[in-house]
Each structure stands twice: as C-alpha cells, then as structure tokens.
Amino acid sequence: MYPFKSGEPELRSVKIYEKGLIIHHWDTDGISSAALLLQYLRKMKNELAIENCTPPIGNYRLSDDEIEKISSKNFQFVIIVDINLPKNNILKLKEYSKAEVFYFDHHLQEKIEEVHHFNPLIEGNNGEKYPSASWFLKCYLNDPVTLPAVLGAVADHETRIKDKKEVYRTIEKYLEEVGLSFNDLLRMVELIDTNYKVGDREGVLKAPYTLLENDSRIILENPLWNKNLEVLKKEVEKQISRPPTRGEGKVLIWNINTPYNITSTVTRRLAWKNNDSIVVVINRGWFTDRDQVYIRSGNKLFDSRELINFAHGLGYDAGGKEEVFAAVVPKSETEKLLEILLRRLEGGR
Known about the structure:
alpha/beta, 13 helices, 44% helix
C-alpha cells in the first residue's frame, strides 16, 4: 500500500472545484489510469466537469500553443498521469493555467516539489509492487481490483507481469472471479493500443470512457480496433523478422522506417528475443522531422536513469523505466546522439 501522509488520498482536495483536466499517456496504461481517475472523481463529486487530453502522439511534452489552449479553459485543477513530461513543461503549465496540479507516475524522474507529485519510486517504494500507473492509482485511491487497473499492469509488461508474483496473484484471482483468461487481457491491451499506433488521437481520448463501462466484451468486440489490429500485427512481424542493422557485441541496432507508432512494441519484442543483449531501435518513419530512439534490455543490462539524465542534459525529450530508454530526436542529430549513447552502453564515455 502506498503510504498516505494524511490517511486518505490528497486528491480529495479537488472536491472544492468545479472544473478539471486529466492529461494522460496515449497507451493502455495511460488510458486505464485516466479511466480510474474519472471514476474516482465522478464518485467523489457528481457535478465535476472533467475533460481529458493527451499530447500529440509521440511527443513527450506540451507545446506552448497547447499550454495556452489549456490555460484559456480556466481549469481549476489538472491531473497529469503516466506521461513523463519535462519538469519545466509542467511548471509552465502550472504558471499559465493557475490550476492546482497533481502528477501521478511510475517512471524514473526527479521529484517536482512545486506540484502534488506522487511516484512510488521517488518515495523509495519497491517498483515491483507498482508495475504500472494504473496499479499505483488503484493502491493510492484504495480501489478494488477492476479491469482498468489490471489492463494497465498487463499493458506495461505483457507476459512478464507473471514474474511480479505478488501482483500477478491478485490478477489471477481477478480473472477467476470475472471469468476471463490472461490471453483475453493481452488481446484487450492490443486492441486499445491500436488507437495510438495508427495515430488516432481522438480514439485515444474516447477510450477512457469505453473502459469506464468495465465490460470486456465492449473492448474485445470493437470493430474498428480489431481492424486496426490486423494491420498492425502484420507490420510488427515484418519489422521484428528483419536482421539487425548492426549485430556484433552486446548492443544490437535495428533501423526501421514505419508510419505506425510501433517502436515501443518492436523494441520490447526484440529485447525479449535477444535477452542477453541491449536492443536499440530507431524509427525514422513516424515523424517527418524527428526520429524515435528506443533502448531496452530484458536483463537490465544498462542504467536507464543515467541515460535519461544524460539525454536531458543535451536538451532532448527523453524518459523511460528501469529497463527502457526512449527519446525523440531531431533527424539532423540522431547519429550524433546514437554515437554518444553507444559509447556509454559499451562501457566508454
């Protein structure tokens, strides 16, 4: 259980307000976390007007225009969840919007004292107990185990959630109670994630409200998501079937060029296939002006926190978890960053 200083979630302070915004990540964990927050806020105060938004897919910051647009709507509180926005981005949002800001996350990051920042890793908690933002929120809000909480945890780890014994025992019990299989969960995650992978930002924004139904059939039988999934599966298989661009040493590199936002999925699958290596994937096809750089290893063969801080120091948007590094880099600077990162990954400086 996440330790509360006051004995109850500090989020209850928004009860005095009338209008709020949830900013969430575009993947299943972010969508599930938004659904949990919507459910909690509605129960706490029926007349609360709540909107949700996400940065443009693939961007780990809010543009100045987006901050101004949010500020113009006079939200009294803003909740950021499961998206590792830069500190200066969050502080600018707070300054311009004049809103009370809450930030829930489970990624590696520094504590932001100027907002209500909740992250079990920052507090020294065991990250194994909080495998996703949705699971952390379930604990923080003292919620029962529901479909959104479970989907977020499975989304961030897929079959490897089974290695987190304490969490997985709870998931198994939930599955038995509701009559679902683990494969059903994997399928639902794939379907929900099709929204961001095909670039459907509006679909991402609608998805938390679908999850509020707490009905697996609505997800599993969604015709658009099923159609998207067939296209994406073929693309992922095509990308992971290719040999690495560079295949010697402990670092394996894949250059891909795909119009779908599948870099995270491809990197995860390749890392699991090459468990004793560090996998680097560069997708040059999602943005017209930038590249996505992902690094992952199945056995935690590198210090992602050190790489994230290093990339931030160079002025790049970067984030990740214990086993993942992700950055968005201007195309003109991709090779320079890669050269520096590879030196560090291979033991140099």
